[in-house]
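cron nightly-structures :: item 1 of 1
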Amino acid sequence: MPTGQRQSVGRPHVPRVSTRRIENPDSRGSEILVAALELFATIGYRATTMAQIGERIGIRGPSLYKHVPSKHSMLVTIMTRMMDELLHRQRTALDAGGDVRAQLKRITAVHVQYHAEHRYEAFVGHREIDSLEEPDRSRILELRRQYETNFRKLVREGQQLGTFTTTSDRLSSYAILDMGIGVSAWYNPTGSVTPNELAATYAHFAEQMLIAESTR
């Protein structure tokens, strides 16, 4: 856990990205989605009822169906937006160019920063994958596969260049992904470490974990 003393590591340049969230033009629908997200994150998707979501925003459960098709549709929307945003940030970071070390630090930084800034979305997105019904479950899993594959390709490129000495691109990509996923479970936005600082520190960790001794 972070302490009150902040790390002073070199920060990777994280490109500015626009959040590509498509806000529901129905403001009531957006309010319902926020209430559902909070409940899914705190008590779980299966334990949440439409009546509880309605109570959270002061309307009767049956009236929710005027704005959203179902509880499942809200879960699909939350997960789809999360993966679309993660992929967008990752592509933006990769498109900024640089060598494999710079790219690794950037995609790790945006990964960690998202999980610090959007803890509820990330927590629900990773925990509730088995609550999705088909074909939505397979579609979200494919987006996750694309996201992980981009990490793995970059690690493999670094291996081929002799920059990274890891023996497994798959396990290395999983380790970096888990670093960010774990943040959504413990990060406290009122604490002493900002999302930017946390992202920079974890990017440094990822780089040090993979680089060859001769390139340090």
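cron nightly-structures :: done
Residues 20 and 163 are 33 Å apart (CA to CA).
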